[in-house]
Amino acid sequence: MVYIGSRFLCWFGNKPVLCTDDPIVVKEVLMNSNGVLESMNFNPSVREALGRGILILNGSDWERHRRIVVPAFGVDNLKEMVSRINESGRNVIQRWTQKASTCDEFELDVFKEFKIFTADVIGTTSFGSDPGQAKRVIELIDEQIALAIADYSFVPGYRYLCVKRRWHSMKLNREIKKCLTELVEGRRKMATRDSDLLGSMLEANQKDADNGGLSIEEIIDECKTFFFAGHESTAVLLAWTCMLLGIHQEWQDRARAEVFEVLGTDRVPTWSDVNKLKTVGMILNESLRLYPPGVAIVRKAVMDCKIGSICIPKDTQIFIPLLPMNHNETTWGEDAEKFNPNRFSEASEKASFFPFGKGPRACVGQKLALLESKILMAMILQNFSFHLSKNYIHSPVVFITMYPQHGVPIILHALKR
Ligand code: HEM
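# protoporphyrin IX containing FE complex -> structure
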């Protein structure tokens, strides 16, 4: 990677972009809360699919949504999600164990498998109290977001040319709305609260009714946003982690020893077990450093402003490049390019490491993403050993997330009991 300085200006078409990793400017940008900087402009197709979700909103609308959404990811709710995540993890292990029953070892693209797992987790943690509906709604949202991504283009107006796709997307939108409206209406009639994200949002919404609260449409848009923001990003984290552990066998062995110490050979993790999986946590952090699913954070100045010592004209985008910052030798030392989870052995926060963002717009799903990743990695290590297949082609590409373009083929071997 070539380092070209801590601050420079470039152009995306006719839009000026200030790219900076200057720690003072980065901190001021991320912590800014006076409304002069807004979140990046999403592509119109994605905006249309996500509606008025927190990822897209700014200003007082964003504040109103964030107030309702954040409590849904609180510790008490996450604790209740552990059994649902365990269930999704068990499905993965059962599928793989079945494959292993007919041969000594087998090859699998784990990136595909992890996308199934994370969709399952978002489905059950969002609407888990209605498993039948959860599956249907997630399938519909998945299809609609895939259509929006297919329309993703830098050519203005391109999406209007794809008439069939637009028509189909509108049809899906109606169906998603119908399913979720029935779900929400059903919940409202019940006396007890459901321990999933939808139930928590409805509860927070009721408490916040005096401040405006959210409409059913807005709650539906949040459910879609969770899927968009949390599905692929977490699958990508798991895929890069397996790739790294498939190469670095010594770390795989260390992590497995820890899993056996905490869980034995057959127990599934509880909330307190998850907190004891320190080595697995260090490995996930090192994976997020080397291969951050989100490679940059972008803001836009909505008026002329001054950040640090820099005067920023209205409409300038500010680009914080997480990927090169995570590989910077001045910050991380001469071995910055090497996989070394030991650099996360101290619990202290690393000032220039924020794969989930920082400040008022930091990722709301950070704890959920790490919880589900730790649980699944622990289950895999407990049941299988693995190495990277010779068919693996190293080709990280960026399209919304930084993902392995040709997947991550792994050779898995079931551990003898
Ligand atoms: C490894 C997995 C994940 C990574 C690396 C990740 C990373 C990020 C990053 C970098 C941001 C932008 C912060 C900013 O603009 O300052 C963000 C925002 C967000 N993430 Fe995540 N995320 C992950 C998983 C999740 C999950 C599981 C969910 C929900 C279920 C989620 C929901 C969101 C939402 C709603 C926002 C927007 C917050 C706002 O604008 O107020 N993310 N995430």
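# post-check
The mean pLDDT is 90.
The chain is about 55% helix and 15% strand.
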